[in-house]
Specification:
Length: 271
């Protein structure tokens, strides 16, 4: 067994420095900002320089306040970026998953790009999650792995993840329900939180049973990050349970935009 796997199995996580190419991570971050910029232009009637961080983030906050539905929909669209999905199948990631013990890694849920700030949330738990385990929302193989990394340098001031080492060995904790996340009461946990620090390119691999939480973003900036989840198709209990899938995707039956599209609009597209 490799030293990497030994450390992972013991602590429940490994933080790999300079794991991803910084230019690749930066390009994904830039593409996500550009998608928001298209809707900022439509909603606020002004263009914004996505490379001017203070101006762009100010525009993000204005967009959130002006048209929350469009903001939420734009946030959903960034989850479908081809570059983000391509990264989820990158051999560097899948090879590392195998090194950690996943004999047959499969994607557990579609990739997620997150943008956390108290200015982009209607409730506190929408931007700062309390102590929880990701397995509760995935319910996949017992050796499920979560891959998390920020798209910007992230330390304690930006609310980077905090973890409880070795908590994955305690199984599934009791928790209260907060929407789709189960929050673990403080009295069930030992106060041995480890604050993690990231540079662009650093990647965290951790057990879906590892207890973790968001740090406090005390800045005016947005904490951009990516989360990927994987199951192991050859884990015995996953096979025995018939490969359950907790995430359900289905189309909406009604037209979102009534009386759309017009024939003239179709002709314009295919002219």
């Amino acid at each position: 067994m490799s030293s990497l796997r030994d450390s992972y199995k013991q602590e429940g996580y490994v933080l790999l420095k300079n794991f991803l190419d910084k230019d690749l991570v930066t390009a994904i971050h830039r593409e996500g900002r550009q998608i928001f910029a298209y809707q900022i232009q439509r909603t606020l009637g002004k263009s914004v320089d996505i490379d001017d961080q203070p101006a762009f983030e100010k525009a993000m906050y204005e967009f959130f306040a002006a048209d929350f539905t469009a903001f939420a929909n734009t946030g959903k669209q960034v989850q479908h970026m081809v570059s983000l999905h391509r990264l989820g199948t990158d051999s560097r990631i899948t090879d590392t998953l195998k090194e950690l013990g996943l004999d047959y890694p499969v994607i557990g849920v579609r990739p997620a790009m997150l943008f956390n700030s108290r200015h982009l949330a209607k409730r506190d738990d929408y931007w700062r999650l309390g102590a929880h385990q990701d397995w509760r929302t995935g319910q996949g193989s017992l050796d499920s792995v979560v891959v998390w990394f920020p798209l910007v340098p992230a330390g304690a001031d930006l609310g980077a993840l905090q973890v409880l080492p070795r908590s994955h060995r305690n199984g599934l904790y009791e928790s209260s329900s907060v929407d789709y996340i189960g929050t673990i009461p403080d009295e069930l946990l030992q106060d041995e939180w480890q604050q993690l620090e990231f540079e662009v390119g650093d990647v965290l691999f951790f057990s879906a049973f590892l207890v973790h939480r968001s740090g406090i973003n005390s800045t005016e900036s947005i904490r951009w990050s990516v989360q990927l989840r994987y199951n192991n198709l050859l884990e015995n209990t996953f096979i025995e349970r018939g490969y359950p899938l907790a995430y359900i995707y289905k189309p909406q039956a009604e037209l979102i935009t009534p009386d759309f599209p017009a024939v003239s609009q179709m002709n314009e597209i295919f002219n």
